[in-house]
Structure formats: structure tokens, C-alpha cells
Fold this sequence. Notes:
The chain is of the alpha+beta class and 344 residues long. 27% of the residues lie in helices and 37% in strands. The protein has a domain at 35-261.
Amino acid sequence: MRKTASPLSLALLGSGVFLLVLAAMLAWYVAPRAARTPVDVDVTTVFTGTGRYFETEDLETRKGRITVTRHVLGDVAASERSGQAVWNVSTTVDSPRTLRLKDPRKALLWTTGRWVTDRRTNAPVHCCGESPAHYEGEAYLKFPFDVQRRTYRWWDDTLQAAVPLAYTGTRRVAGHQGYVFTGSVPPARTGSRQVPGKLVGRPKQPQIQAEEWYANAGIELVVDRRTGRIIDASISPRRTLRVPGGQRDVVTLLDGRRLRFTPATRRAQVALASADARKLRLVGETVPPWTAGAGGVLALAGAVLVAIGRRPRPDAARGDEQPDGEGPEFVTPVSGQGTARGEH
């Protein structure tokens, strides 16, 4: 007699195969696509510290607190059209006086940009009205996913060029461990601006095209390894003016001494990095092995039950056979009349 597998065994086998396929898809398809730069960002980071800055009200360099505020807002529509990450960036540098005004147009310095990158590699993409037009490097507002212990080329927006940041170790920020990258920028000319001659020691010239110079004595970024988010940062920017062809600084526009993320910014960046890292870890490391393990157990159990269900039982196989020497008995009916023996 032919046996068929039970519904339970088929259900177990089917569920196991499904979970095995799901584990493979999570590991090799979903996880790599989950590591994508987000497009719907709305993040503000704040640096604070002390230093010197040029006060435009009285045309003098003062000492005091310096605040650098950077607001990043994703352009979702442009990102969806292009398939890239399109972020608009606004950065202000404020003194205590200008900070109270809460108007970027009245800040000591206000710059804007449009950052366009490949969502997978973080490489610059030249489209969608990017600004600056020739952004380069591997990192700026964030690092690529799966950060390595090596030197990265980081875009310095003031220098308008990429500078090398070397890996120097690890550090915990609000309980979250990150990779530390450090570097510096030697003095370099970045442009020119027209100023009163007396401001740079040329009183006989009403106006002069002074040279703008920039340096950064210490760049230190702490980066989340998995997501590439910057969870702590400190910079020491110095911007000055020189007379044309001059060899020394004559006016200090900005001289920040280790301007660092505020505690609130560090906590916020760590929270974002932790949330993103948990998602990546869940789909890339946690769920696939558990799903594969459960699928393997269910598939094996189902296969065993199917094999047992299809195997004929020995006693059932002999059920239709008859013992040797025995067979069906046939009874010959006896006639009611005897056989004639020759009597008449």
C-alpha cells in the first residue's frame, strides 16, 4: 500500500525552506541595501569654545566665546529623482553678540552648500546643483559605512580641498566607542577680499585687495565604525588677512581654540549612530543566523517526517499475504441423492 506524507511534515519542510531562503536574502540582499545614506535628514550640530574673532561693529579683534552652528537638511525630492543623497548645509560662526540676534545674515560668518553623494559609497556625485562644484574626498559630514582603520581624505570646506585624516585609535563618547581620526591644515591662501587700507596697515590706500589665509592646527573626529556618523569633533580654525604678497598675518578674523561639539550635540549624534547601528546589526548579523538556524531545524524535522511517512510498515506490507500451506477453503455441496450402486 502506498503511503503519503502528513500535512504536518510538509508544513515543517516548507517553513524550513522558506526561513533558509529568507536568511540568505537578509544577509546578501537586504543588509547591503540597508547601509544607505539617509535622505530625510534634519540635523543641527554645534561647536563651542574660546578664541579670538573680528568684531565688525568696532573693527577690532576680540577675545571670547565662539559658536559654530551647522544645520543639515535633506532635499528628499531631489534625492528621490537622482537616487543620490542630496543635503543642503548652512554654517554660521557667531560671537556672543551675533548669536543673540539669531539671524545668519548678521553672523560673523555664514556659508551655505549643497552636498551630493553616492548613498552606498559616500563618494561625491557631481549633479543636482552641488556646491561647491568640485567637492572631493571620502568624508565630510559623515564617513562611509563600515569605517576602516586607515587614513581618509576629508573635505575641508574652508580650504576647498581634501586633507588627510589619519586613524589614531579609539575613544568612547557617551558610552559609545568610535574610531578617532586626526589631521591638520598648514597655512594656505584661500582667496582675497577688499578691505579698507588702514585695516591692514596701509592707511594711504582707501581700499586694498587683502589676501585671505586659513589654517587648522587640530582636526579631531570620532566616528562610529558601522554607520560613519561623526559622534564627536573638535577643530581649531584660524582665518587671517595679509597684505598682498605679505609673509605675516596682520588681521585675525577668527582663531578658534579647539572648538568642540557641545555635550548635547554629542549625545544626539551618539543616539542617531546607535539607532542606525542597531538596525544594520539586526538585519546583517542577528536575524540571518537565527533565521537560518530555525529554518535548518524545521527543514530537517520536516524531511525526516516525510521520509518516515512514505516508508511502508512491515506488518502492513504482509497484510495481504497468506500463510504457506493455507488457502481458501471451498466446500463442495453434497447432493441429496446417493450414487447408484448397480441396484435396481
